[in-house]
């Protein structure tokens, strides 16, 4: 699958569907989602990666780092990130990122 050509907003951020990306590295800056209120908009990739653990994963230097991060996140059930219009500035809702049920310690 070739790398997609995404549209860009006035700030130079690309936006589009994650379904068009052949790999996570090819995802746009603003990823299309449906907000909790049912509106179609975009989440900022960097904000989503901060919540879903992708950003943390890039810093791990050992399996112990990964395990320590998992333990620090054990009590989280869900987080939300803002949903924007394609301009990347106008907030129109929020997107829910749900995790596994918190584990008993």
Write a structural description.
The structure is a single chain. The protein is α+β, with helices and mostly antiparallel strands. The chain has one domain. The protein has 3 helices and 6 strands, in the order ββββαααββ. A 4-stranded mixed sheet has the order 1-2-3-4. Strand 3 (30-34) and strand 4 form a beta hairpin.
Q: What is the string of SSEs from the N terminus onward?
A: EEEEHHHEE
Please outline the major beta sheet.
Answer: 4 strands, mixed
Gyration radius (Cα, Å) is 15 Å
Could you report the average pLDDT, rounded to the nearest whole number? 88
Widest sheet: strand ordering: 1-2-3-4
What helical percentage do the residues reach?
10-25%
What is the terminal-to-terminal distance?
44 Å
Taken together, the total number of domains comes to 1
How many helices? The count is: 3
Beta-strand level of the residues, as a percent range? 25-35%
Structural class by secondary-structure content? alpha+beta
Descriptive tags:
105 residues; alpha+beta; 4-stranded mixed sheet; two-stranded antiparallel sheet; 6 strands
Briefly say what this structure is.
It is built from three helices and six strands; from the N terminus they run E-E-E-E-H-H-H-E-E. With 105 residues, the chain is α+β, with helices and mostly antiparallel strands.
């Amino acid at each position: 699958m070739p790398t997609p050509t995404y549209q860009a907003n006035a700030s130079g951020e690309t936006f589009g569907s994650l379904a068009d990306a052949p790999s996570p590295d090819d995802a746009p800056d603003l990823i299309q989602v449906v907000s909790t209120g049912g509106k179609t908009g975009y989440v900022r990739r960097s904000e989503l990666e901060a919540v879903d653990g992708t950003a943390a994963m890039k810093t791990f230097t050992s399996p112990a780092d990964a395990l320590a991060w998992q333990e620090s996140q054990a009590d989280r059930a869900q987080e939300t990130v803002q949903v924007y219009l394609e301009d990347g500035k106008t907030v129109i809702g929020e997107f829910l990122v749900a995790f596994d049920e918190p584990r008993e310690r």
